[in-house]
């Protein structure tokens, strides 16, 4: 048995495919590639695979992570090669690496996500910079999510303007403490519908 | 009209506001995207219900592969958007488009609808409207796509005659290529729309409804049906393939969850059993089988191309396929280590064997479906489905004792000459079946009973009979509901108003088209979805044109009445249907036609084709064409 960690993209129209359905795409790609996927024991065996973090519908990603278990030792390079071309357009495999079989689950070691945001509206660059500066200087940003009050400010680890149509940032992604890019856009007084959001990296605990 | 890039741009702004946006974007594994400008003819294949249901339609899958195999053609897909998406599209002024390239339907040369059942008609109208196209054939010209249709419901084309330019009667594989060729020839000749219709009318199996005229008697029945154009044939003969071509092997793998996710291979077309109520059984004759090796090859390639975890062996009666045991044995052997599920819909009680059970065992599915349809010998003789109660109970016992916990039984009420005794017997039989389950596995055993109401269909021996009234249906359903309040049994029945609606349209004439248009204008769509079907809308639509549902549903026709679909010939002759109707009246059975040919008409109409494709695959008796004095005479050899 081996466990591999795969970095892949989720782009294009696939951004309208849910995480559950993405798992199904993985199962089928592995079947087509005739790779020896491991299954859980029990009456309804389930494929052994774990996604790192659910990507909200509508976001693209250049840094999705999934852990998959195979029943036989296969070189990561061969896995990558055999999976090529088995997915719909939008999923491309960037990296396959073997990880410790008994290591912690992916979900439990994700600490933050880095995002790239493209704005489909034109704001003067100094206006955009002023708004970002105001957000970063604020002590707290009280908001409510599902009727529960929380502070968005400590969840924003980094935020900066690239040019008048592009922002980048890093948001905390921990259980019960996840910053969402569309909420950051709201405090910047930008309609999230006017933006395209892409996850560019998942930060894992050492 | 918006360009495909503008449509894609606008979609990005609405897709996150609707449920399951993955329905509307395409991009799946095995979709075919060709360079728009590299082909001569562009075809949009339309399924008038949502993506989730339409994706698994086998007919469209066949055309998609066949047409895209031509270098001069591209074929793309379009489905009916669900109501939330429709509203968002209308609001954002996005016309209906195809999933592959996002081109508006209006940009295509041919728009081809499949019409598998009647309750899909208003969706077809809605799709034309969303595409920004005129709904009526009379309002379209050479600047619009040619709108064609085919499918089971289209075998009575009259209710949709006003909206469709040309109907393809019969099996699409046999005719679609010729439609494209005729279209291409017309386009090069730079003529008007009527010229195209005239060229199409020359193709056997094509029906151009605007080339005909109907007159009516005072009682509302048809007086005459006549061509108004000299080159329009008096009758249209169904087209068929002499040998089933190899099945499609690049199934589209949805990127979202849909109703059926599996490789589907049609192992046999047509059914030789001759159940008198069954539309599919009559209109899909003759029976043609695919060779085992061809099916196995198709399964292997399709699984390699898709990664699906289930394969369905489709036909109207899969256990009647001659080599069924051999086929399943070989599939199970080849895929024994791969968790492949094999599903066999439509099993026939009389051809189920212990061997078959053994092979299907451990397939992981909790249920097993059987369709006895009727519970008394009296009724089984009328409908010509002569199973024995003892046999059904034995089969049920075998199923439960092999670990299937649930059996689904399908029955029908409302067959002609039905008595209350026939209805009571359904409940008694169900109780006997569940007690087989109790014997085999105790209280774990379940029985789901589905009782639908018979709707008389065109081209069947029951095309003349009256359908039950709503009151009759309710009475029978009430009885069954009470009688089947038994632990372990779950009873489902169909809504009488939906049955009447289906019955109104299935034997509708040209005047029904007005009612369909009126109903659509008043909001009718997704009529096969319980939450959208509106009985009142349809009642007023019919009333608006002086049509009564009684005329179309609860009226016994005389055998010499001119029926609205008489000009469509399926190969099973009207005289044979009448003979079968008379036999049903006297409770006389007609045997399985593989054992004895009953001369239904197929061999007479398709004798040359049969002679061209001799051998085992076609289940009608062999014929030999003997050419003498430039006439072809045919000798029907004794059936095996």
Name its key features.
heterodimer, A: 206 residues, alpha+beta, Alpha-Beta Plaits, 2 domains, 9-stranded mixed β-sheet, two-stranded antiparallel sheet, 5 helices, 22% helix, elongated, B: 640 residues, alpha/beta, Rossmann fold, 6-stranded mixed β-sheet, 4-stranded parallel β-sheet, 22 helices, 16% strand, disordered C terminus
What does the model show?
The complex is a heterodimer of chains A (about 210) and B (about 650). Chain A has two domains: about 1-105, Pseudouridine synthase I, catalytic domain, N-terminal subdomain (Alpha-Beta Plaits, 2-Layer Sandwich); about 110-205, 2-Layer Sandwich (Alpha-Beta Plaits), CATH 3.30.70. Helices cover about 20% and strands about 35% of the residues of chain A. Chain A contains five helices and eleven strands; from the N terminus they run E-H-E-E-H-E-H-E-H-E-E-E-E-E-H-E. In chain A, the strands form two sheets. In chain A, strands 1, 2, 3, 4, 5, 8, 9, 10 and 11 form a nine-stranded mixed beta sheet that branches. A two-stranded antiparallel sheet of chain A has the order 6-7. In chain A, strand 8 and strand 9 form a beta hairpin. The longest helix of chain A has 14 residues, at about 20-30. Chain A starts with a strand and ends with a strand. Chain B has about 650 residues and is of the alpha/beta class. A six-stranded mixed beta sheet of chain B has the order 2-1-3-4-5-6. In chain B, strands 15-16-17-18 form a four-stranded parallel beta sheet, with helices on one face. Chain B has a three-stranded parallel beta sheet with strand order 10-13-14, with helices on one face. In chain B, helix 15 (about 470-485) links the parallel strand 17 (about 445-455) and strand 18. The radius of gyration of chain B is 25 Å and the shape is globular. In chain B, about 50% of the residues are buried.
């Amino acid at each position: 048995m081996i466990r591999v960690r795969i970095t892949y993209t989720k782009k294009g129209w696939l951004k309208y495919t849910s995480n559950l359905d993405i798992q199904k795409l993985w199962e089928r790609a592995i079947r087509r590639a005739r790779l020896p996927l491991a299954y859980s024991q029990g009456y309804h065996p389930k494929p052994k695979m774990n996604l790192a973090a659910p990507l909200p519908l509508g976001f693209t990603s250049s840094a999705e992570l999934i852990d998959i278990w195979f029943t036989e030792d296969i070189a990561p390079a061969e896995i990558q090669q055999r999976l090529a071309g088995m997915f719909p357009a939008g999923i491309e495999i960037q990296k396959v690496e073997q990880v410790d079989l008994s290591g912690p689950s992916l979900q439990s070691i994700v600490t933050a996500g880095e995002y790239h945001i493209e704005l489909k509206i034109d704001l003067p660059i100094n206006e955009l910079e002023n708004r970002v500066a105001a957000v970063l200087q604020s002590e707290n940003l009280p908001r409510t999510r599902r009727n529960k009050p929380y502070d968005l400010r400590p969840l924003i680890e980094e935020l900066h303007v690239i040019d008048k149509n592009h922002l980048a940032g890093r948001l905390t992604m921990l259980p019960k403490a996840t910053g969402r890019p569309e909420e950051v856009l709201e405090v910047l007084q930008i309609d999230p519908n006017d933006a395209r959001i892409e996850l560019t990296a998942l930060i894992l605990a050492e | 009209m918006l360009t495909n890039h503008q449509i894609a741009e606008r979609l990005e702004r609405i897709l996150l506001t609707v449920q399951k946006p993955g329905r509307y974007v395409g991009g799946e594994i095995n979709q075919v995207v060709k360079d728009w400008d590299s082909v001569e003819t562009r075809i949009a294949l339309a399924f008038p219900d949502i993506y989730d249901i339409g994706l698994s339609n086998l007919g469209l899958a066949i055309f998609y592969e066949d047409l895209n195999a031509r270098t001069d053609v591209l074929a793309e897909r379009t489905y009916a958007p669900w109501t939330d998406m429709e509203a968002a599209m209308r609001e954002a002024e996005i016309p209906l488009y195809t999933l592959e390239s996002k081109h508006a339907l209006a940009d295509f040369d041919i728009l081809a609808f499949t019409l598998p059942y009647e309750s899909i008609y208003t969706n077809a109208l809605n799709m034309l409207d969303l595409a920004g196209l005129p709904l009526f054939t009379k309002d379209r010209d050479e600047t619009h796509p040619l709108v064609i249709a085919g499918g089971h419901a289209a075998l009575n084309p009259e209710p949709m005659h006003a909206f469709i330019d040309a109907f393809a009667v019969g099996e699409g594989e046999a005719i679609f290529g010729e439609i494209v060729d005729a279209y291409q020839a017309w386009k090069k000749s730079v003529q008007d729309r009527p010229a195209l219709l005239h060229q199409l009318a020359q193709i056997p199996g094509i029906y151009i409804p605007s080339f005909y005229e109907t007159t009516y008697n005072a009682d509302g029945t048809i007086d005459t049906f006549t061509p108004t154009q000299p080159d329009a044939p008096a009758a249209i003969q169904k087209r068929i393939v002499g040998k089933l071509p190899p099945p499609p092997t690049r199934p589209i793998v949805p990127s979202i969850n849909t109703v059926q996710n599996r490789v589907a291979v049609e192992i046999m077309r047509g059914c030789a059993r001759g159940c008198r109520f069954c539309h599919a059984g009559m209109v899909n004759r003759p029976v043609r089988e695919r060779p085992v090796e061809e099916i196995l090859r198709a399964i292997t390639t399709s699984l390699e191309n898709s990664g699906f975890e289930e394969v369905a062996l489709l036909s109207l009666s899969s256990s009647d396929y001659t080599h069924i045991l051999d086929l399943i044995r070989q599939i199970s052997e080849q895929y024994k280590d791969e968790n492949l599920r094999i599903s066999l819909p439509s099993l026939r009680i009389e051809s189920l064997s212990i061997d078959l059970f053994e092979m299907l065992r451990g397939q992981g599915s909790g249920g097993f479906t059987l369709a006895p349809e009727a519970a008394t010998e009296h009724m089984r003789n009328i409908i010509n489905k002569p199973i024995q109660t003892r046999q059904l109970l034995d089969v049920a016992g075998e199923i439960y004792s092999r670990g299937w916990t649930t059996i689904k039984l399908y029955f029908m009420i409302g067959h002609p000459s039905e008595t209350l005794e026939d209805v009571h017997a359904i409940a008694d039989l169900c109780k006997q079946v569940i007690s087989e389950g109790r014997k085999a596995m105790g209280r774990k055993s379940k029985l789901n009973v589905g009782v639908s109401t018979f709707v008389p269909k065109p081209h069947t021996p029951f095309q003349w009979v009256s359908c039950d009234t709503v009151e009759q249906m309710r009475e029978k359903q009430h009885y069954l509901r009470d009688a089947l309040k038994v632990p372990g049994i779950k009873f489902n029945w169909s809504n009488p108003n939906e049955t009447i609606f289906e019955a109104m349209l299935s034997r509708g004439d040209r005047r029904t088209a007005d009612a369909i248009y009126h109903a659509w204008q008043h909001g009718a769509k997704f009529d096969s979805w319980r939450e959208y079907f509106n009985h009142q809308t349809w009642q007023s639509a019919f009333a608006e044109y002086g049509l009564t549902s009684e005329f179309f549903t609860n009226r016994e026709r005389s055998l010499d009445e001119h029926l609205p679909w008489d000009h469509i010939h399926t190969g099973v002759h009207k005289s044979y249907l009448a003979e079968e109707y008379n036999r049903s009246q006297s409770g006389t059975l007609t045997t399985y036609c593989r054992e004895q040919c009953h001369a239904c008409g197929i061999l007479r109409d398709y004798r040359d084709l049969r002679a061209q494709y001799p051998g085992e695959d076609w289940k009608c008796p062999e014929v030999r064409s003997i050419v003498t004095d430039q006439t072809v005479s045919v000798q029907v050899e004794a059936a095996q």
